[in-house]
Write a structure and sequence with these properties.
The chain is an alpha+beta fold. 31% of the residues lie in helices and 21% in strands. The protein starts with 12 loop residues before the first strand and ends with a helix. The mean pLDDT is 85.
Length: 98
């Protein structure tokens, strides 16, 4: 066993495609999965979503530009109210209440 740390790649911008879930019957028939949307991600965290081929190309272009310029998002996406800068305002925003 070596005392060296494993080499880890820095996070990068990428685009991934999400699909609608398939039933066992659809998987058995080997049907093509239906595309739900495309996501622009940084380090596995989604930052923007889009539908359609035009959006796929736009998100890919953004990923290429962001990687060339070594853009890092200021804040990662909010996953829960505790991650928000102001939890009360965040909860009001997502609930639609004023």
């Amino acid at each position: 066993m070596s005392n060296e740390l494993p080499i880890t790649d820095p996070p990068r911008w990428s685009v991934r495609t999400k699909y609608h879930s398939q039933s066992k019957e659809e998987k058995r028939r080997k049907e093509e999965p239906v595309i739900k949307h495309h996501e622009l991600t940084f380090g596995g965290v989604s930052h923007e979503k889009g539908k359609g081929e035009g959006e796929l190309e736009r998100l890919r272009s953004l990923a290429i530009i962001f990687n060339r310029r070594q853009v890092i998002p200021r804040r990662l996406a909010v996953e829960c109210a505790a991650d928000a800068p102001n939890a009360r305002i965040y909860l009001q925003k997502i609930s639609g209440l004023r």
